[in-house]
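Q: Fold this one first, please.
A: Sequence and structure below.
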Amino acid sequence: MARGRKRKGIGDKEVDAFEGQKNQYLGRPLTDLPGRVSLNILVRLSVKRILICKRVCKTWRYLISSSVFAKLHFARGEAVPLLRSSAPWRVSRTLFLVEPPEHCSGFDDGPLKIKLDTKLKIPVYDEETVIDDVELDPPPKSGVKLRAEHHELKVVNSCNGLLCLCDPKSLDLPSFTVWRNPIAVCNPITGEYINLPDPIEWDEDTQRSLSIHCGLGFSPKMNQYKVIRFREPFFSTERESGSMTDIHTLGSESWKTVFNVPSSLYNNKGSPTYLNGSLHWICTGENGSNSIVTFNFDIEKFQSVPPPPFKFCKSVMDTNGEKMLGVLKGCLSICDGSGFEKLKIWVMKEYGVQESWSKEFCFITQTNEGRWIYGSYEPICLLRNGAILLFHSLSGALFYHDPKKHGFKFLKPQDGYKTSKYVAIAHIPSFISLKDVVKAHNMAVLPTKSRCAEFKLQGECKDVFLVEEDPAMTWY
């Protein structure tokens, strides 16, 4: 039949009637649903699907970008692993959000592989030097190529969908010194970040230190996000009397100092864990005993939480792994991998009450292939089928345990590399804009997009095209 000709015996009325019956059979398009119904559907989707739906139409984009959607989505939010490559041959600002498969509530079906297709970004480290290194008058059309050192901001911890980022390098200090100054706070889902003001300079005595510790938390009473930092001093006399802690409230332009750091906090393990308005650390005292030290952001003081009812100390037999903190379904938890016994996970069902500690998991860390995996495990999240996801720091991998099936399985990322290692933290995705969090007119909220960033050059703002190297091909 020639193109453009109507089929013989079928007129315009018949075609219109057929199309009408077809539309009646298919129903109205989703984009025509009432806003309340669309909102109720969109908040139940995975982050990956929501980001796709945001590009479907202006109506959905408006709904997903609204503060109402962000609050409803965060209220339903659950912690999931947030991965970043730690392999020395891969340097990237890319983060991977790992969500359980949509067709099931766990990782039992099919091969034990996780897709790394939900990619997020953190800001460029020291973006001013990116601009200073090249001639940008006018900016080159080909863009500014980012080098390996521009990807090196470290993720300290996660709090309510926000990440605290710190300086990765030592500055004019011995090679053994670890320098971890907080630099920025970002929301990887919305692609926004804010730079923190320069911290207060300490005096010469406290300037000599081994490391800086920091973390991000939230004060429910004041409805404010705060960043703290404290430094381990060299001198024992200082350690006994307590050292300084700097506190910064997001939206302000300065830091303030308090003087009540417990001495045991300098020997803390792992990243800080946020829960109930406080940051938590497991600390080791001089006698080898462990304790849980917290910083309450409402009263801005250090406190303690009663530990589980077992021998909560480090002995010479603790050669397997350390005790690691986490949050499972809104409850403080401890993963005890010490000794050569089974891995035990304790959960504090009523916060602050020692009697509410309950041993929820106890299993051997032997994979289905018969391989024993010793070391420290960090609890990441509980899945809806009752299984648990753990992060093993030594192997840089995620592990899955379903108590109903008595399995302990290694989850391999589908990234094309057999020896890839990752760093993982528990993260609750949030679509809440940093502009609503900061609530300050003089605080700049910047984009983390790698291809278009705004910088101040010669007193004016210019858009600079940034070209990010393929993370799989970045070597150093």
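Q: Good. Now the second chain.
A: Here it is, same layout.
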Amino acid sequence: MTKLLRLFLWVLTLLQLSQLAISRQKQKVPTPPLPILPLPSYSQLKWQQRELIMFLHFGINTFTDSEWGTGHESPAIFNPVGLNANQWVDVATQAGFDLMILTAKHHDGFCLWPSKYTDHSVISSPWKNGHGDVVQELVNAAKAVGGVDVGLYLSPWDRHDRRYAHDLEYNEYYLAQLQELLERYGSVREIWFDGAKGSNAPNMSYYFSDWFSMVKELQSSINIFSDAGPDVRWVGNEKGFAGNTSWSTINGTSLSIGNASIEDYLNTGDPKGTDWVPAECDVSIRDGWFWHKSESPKRLSQLLEIYYNSVGRNCVMLLNVPPNSTGLISEPDVQRLKEFRSAITTTFSTNLAENCYIKASSQRGGKDGGFGPENVLDNDHLWTYWAPSDDDNDHEQWIEIRGTNGGLRFNVIRIQEAIGLGQRIKEHKIYVDGKKVADGTTVGYKRLHRLEKGLVHGQIVRIQIVKSKGLPLISSIGLHFDPFWHPKGSRDQSSLLS
């Protein structure tokens, strides 16, 4: 082989290698953006995705027509002869709930399970001749259905037990009962603590840090709810309303259980918060928390308003549905829950944006980088998302949905962030055909804008991110029609937007 030929082959080989290297560089997939701390845990993400949780206030108060028992009630009055936890679970599943939290012990100190540390429990009642166990009945019913989890509430304030007001004795008693519940009944997904007690209650120091440590030792995947978290915080009221600004982040060191002065802080969270402690919005389907014969369930419009102001504001809605003295969820409540589920399904089962053209101000990694605006219309509302280019950080960032012939008619706009990488959006605005129809601050897991002026008819919907901590990451967008939304003075706004 001549030197000239060898040189030619050598040059040809170099060219092939360089082309291969260039080709490989072109094929590199852009990486996701760095997360913005703090981040949710796996258990917190699962909790957020539930959206709805059912509370079951049931106990001595159910039979005395009261809300706060005295602690002096006789266990002989507890006799729910028709108790059927299977009915509870069936009602919950039909209404879209997959976690049910039971009041294992309320302030009156009566225990719905046969605790070996007190006889003030079902063991001293005529129900099932003292051999009943409400906690076990619920656990068995949930397990039989599958896909339904159980949570428990154990009131720190105990108006019956003589050890209350004796710090060491009572905290040992409370810890012993916690251990019973968390060891005896299998997996508990949420444990509920609060600081509620009467103004005349004896001074008492609760060893919350000891309690929380034992809870996590016994069940590491559980979520602990209280005013101070550490996993889920109270929203600051019992109306079920989160703040219009609603951060999942908050400073845990600023929180304390039973402190009324921090209710506004709990309601909004903190954009500079160092801890991920999202809010749970507790509210009852009736005026009271326990069943009262004289009460009726809230109207459907009220429940929907609560839904938009809890789930629609980056929170989870905890709806109390109290069983009656027979031991069943009352028929009026059952029917209202069916209407509630039907209304949610009717509104959100169809996304009017699905078949639309979608574009954005920019996208990370370019056209084929995997972070395009089309991700907001897939079925993954958490881990696929639109991400603008790093170069777009100092410019207006927006994502736009363009309707086909005939345009779009809707009255609800849904936006969701990829919260697995942190909560980011501080301020956003929404325009239809260039005219603003809604604005807001935070988004988080889910933000629902139920348009104040009612139905909108337009061609181009633009969501503009005004302020954000780092790059905004939007995981899902929806345009929906809520047939139950009739704001005062509303009318078809097609003329306003034309």
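Q: Anything worth noting on the second one?
A: Residues 20-24, 493-498 have pLDDT under 50 and may be disordered.
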